[in-house]
Write a structure and sequence with these properties.
The protein is an alpha/beta fold. It has a single domain, classed as Response regulator (Rossmann fold, 3-Layer(aba) Sandwich). The chain has five helices and five strands, in the order E-H-E-H-E-H-E-H-E-H. Helix 3 links the parallel strand 3 and strand 4. The protein starts with a strand and ends with a helix.
Length: 122
């Protein structure tokens, strides 16, 4: 069982992801804004963080991931976004600009979400 933080401004996505992951034995904490997420990360011990790139601001997820990396947070971060379908920009690479462990394009199927958690936990 993993303790997972899901950060996204889309309440429906959070609820659906939580239902899928909890049905598979994981504990899920949800956050729909960056400040709340940062507070939860500093006070909790998470095994995985799912983090949307675009929330209230276009770069909220990227900014939060960068701050976490600078603080030395080693928790795997899986970035999420559907923005490439709209803009054509490919965020699918984790690097210094996008400090993450992996990337998932939305919409994310329930099976893909479960597979990604299992892959990270190995």
């Amino acid at each position: 069982m993993a303790k997972i933080l899901m950060v996204d401004d889309d309440r429906e996505f959070l609820e659906a992801g939580k239902a899928v992951l909890e049905a598979n034995g994981h504990k899920v904490v949800m956050s729909n804004d960056v400040q709340d997420a940062e507070n939860k990360i500093s006070s909790g011990d998470f095994d995985i963080i799912f983090l949307d790139i675009m929330m209230q601001e276009a770069d909220d997820g990227i900014a939060l991931a960068s701050r976490l990396k600078k603080k030395g947070v080693a928790t795997p971060i899986i970035m999420l976004s559907g923005v490439s379908k709209v803009t054509g920009y490919d965020y699918g690479k984790c690097d210094e600009v996008l400090p993450c462990t992996d990337f998932l394009e939305k919409p994310v199927s329930p099976q893909r979400l479960i597979d990604k958690v299992n892959e990270i936990l190995k």
